[in-house]
Write a structure and sequence with these properties.
11 strands; 410 residues; 14 helices
Length: 410
């Protein structure tokens, strides 16, 4: 893939500490604080939007060298990389998927389902609001210890990819809507030549790298993983990584659920001067309010203690949902943490505004009337009293923000 010459690949700000002049908006300002023409304030970015289809093959997109178009092998089990985006038969049998399909009225056939999903993305990511840019996330396939990608798992299978979305597909979407979308890459560190793949996606416009170790089978202590982390530090490419319990995809590697090994690895990399920027998704919260909070508490301690002056952050993705709203409310009161938090929605997971109704007060009806789920989540974050740095921090940390504004060269 041709490399472009772009001047803003690395973040323009140094490693941020506390906001020098924190800004909070009152309730009366809430729905008025949307971007205006000529506004010089930092862009508001939703850095956590999933982009997936049921069984999509894109025939006319520019591809990364490590994602060639793969022919379907007749009579053989389907592999995720035969598609540009797919959902596994195992996932489609999970209760969460069946409930979502019924609730959203999604059709059964893949072709109709993919069309409906495309319409769903346009409906929620297109409307104007405080959020101006959305990071669409690729999601690399799970790999075994040898770095091999197994077939798509069916019901009863213990290992495989429930979700796959290629970097090539996401990059193409970002190129077509450069005004709206940013490229969130995903490269499994057990891939052959993973470090070179990371270099390629960064040269191709990636603004972050996404991992989910408990599903993709990623040991943060593996030498191959450490090599990718050092490369991310060298490039200035942040890592968005999931630790803590997971609900939507199968937890097929529970040994990689805890955030504590990540903190140990970052401690060592920091001592070497090779710690990348790391954003822990969902603030490592449990799925349910009474779930295991060990990772959540360990992360909060790290953010305010040992890593207070290091590039370790967390995002608020999915914290506006019904089961996590209590965590969002408590974090709103932790002003000393806000410079370490970034806004994310976890779209297409819908927010559970009714759970926050009494805290949103008179703004509840206005927010609930907004069509876009990510915009609803951003407005809820503002209304709950989060410092504005939560909404603006991503614009300071992410590279390649204007990459797709430039004409391709070479």
């Amino acid at each position: 893939m041709p490399e472009q010459s772009v001047g803003d690949r690395r973040p323009t700000a140094p490693l941020p500490g506390r906001s020098a002049s924190p800004t909070r908006l009152g309730a009366s300002q809430l729905l008025l604080a949307t971007p205006a023409s000529g506004d010089s304030s930092p862009v508001i970015i939703d850095l956590h939007c999933h982009y997936a289809f049921a069984a999509l093959r894109a025939s006319s997109i520019e591809r990364f060298s490590f994602e060639p178009q793969v022919a379907v092998r007749a009579g053989q089990p389907a592999h995720p990389t035969e598609y540009d985006s797919c959902l596994s038969p195992r996932l489609r049998r999970r209760l969460v998927w069946r409930a979502a399909r019924r609730w959203l009225g999604l059709p059964e056939t893949d072709r109709e389902l993919d069309q409906r999903l495309g319409d769903h993305y346009e409906r929620h990511l297109g409307p104007a609001g405080p959020v101006e840019r959305f990071v669409l996330l690729a999601f690399d396939a799970a790999r075994d210890e040898r770095g091999e990608c197994p077939p798509l798992p069916g019901p009863g299978d213990r290992f495989g990819s429930d979700l796959y979305t290629s970097n090539s597909l996401v990059r193409d979407a970002c190129r077509r809507r450069a005004d709206r979308f940013l490229f969130g890459a995903s490269v499994h560190p057990y891939r052959p030549e993973a470090v070179a793949c990371v270099e390629e996606v960064f040269a191709g416009g990636a603004c972050l790298l996404k991992w989910m170790p408990l599903h993709q089978n990623i040991d943060i202590r593996d030498p191959r993983t450490l090599g990718v982390l050092r490369k991310c530090a060298q490039l200035g490419l942040p890592l968005l990584v999931h630790y803590g319990p997971e609900f939507s995809l199968a937890t097929q590697c529970p040994q990689y659920r805890s955030v504590r090994p990540l903190l140990e690895v970052l401690r060592g990399l920091r001592a070497e001067g090779q710690m990348p920027c790391v954003i822990v998704a969902h603030v490592a919260t449990p799925v349910m309010p009474l779930g295991d909070q060990d990772s959540h508490r360990a992360l909060l301690d790290a953010l305010t203690g040992e890593f207070a002056d290091a590039p370790l952050y967390a995002d608020l993705a999915a914290l506006a949902t019904w089961t996590k709203a209590g965590f969002l409310s408590r974090l709103a009161r932790r002003q000393e943490l806000h410079h370490k938090l970034l806004f994310g929605s976890d779209f297409p997971i819908p927010p559970g505004l009714a759970r926050l109704r009494w805290k949103l007060g008179r703004n509840y009806r206005q927010i609930a009337a907004v069509q876009s789920w990510p915009q609803q989540a951003a407005l809820a974050v503002r209304c709950l009293g989060f410092n504005e740095i939560v909404l603006h921090r991503a614009a300071e940390l992410l590279p390649n923000l204007r990459y797709f504004d430039q004409p391709a060269t070479g």
